[in-house]
């Protein structure tokens, strides 16, 4: 049996979040997700303390196609650590942290406006 990383090859609005996961494109995913121009990926972090520069490697790989990164920090707003914010700034990416629900809503609006947006979203129950 071959196990592959969760990946949806394309951009899609997020239809729902909660119960530990997300729904999009007539599919569901349990756990956190990363939405970048190349697609929607399962994302390893499960809590705010898991957010590190390594966790955002795919975002930095696609930096030329991303202007704004929304970071859903779980049920509550948590400011990103300064080293992370600086790494995004150095890559030319504006980062904005907010609760996961607010990030989902903002991502959908920006996606509908065809903005160069990405989202890193921690799953919430």
UniProtKB/TrEMBL annotation:
Sequence intervals crossing the membrane: none
SUPFAM superfamilies: MTH938-like
Superkingdom of origin organism: Bacteria
Pfam families: DUF498 (PF04430)
Name recorded for this polypeptide: Uncharacterized conserved protein, contains Mth938-like domain
Record lineage: Bacteria, Pseudomonadati, Pseudomonadota, Alphaproteobacteria, Hyphomicrobiales
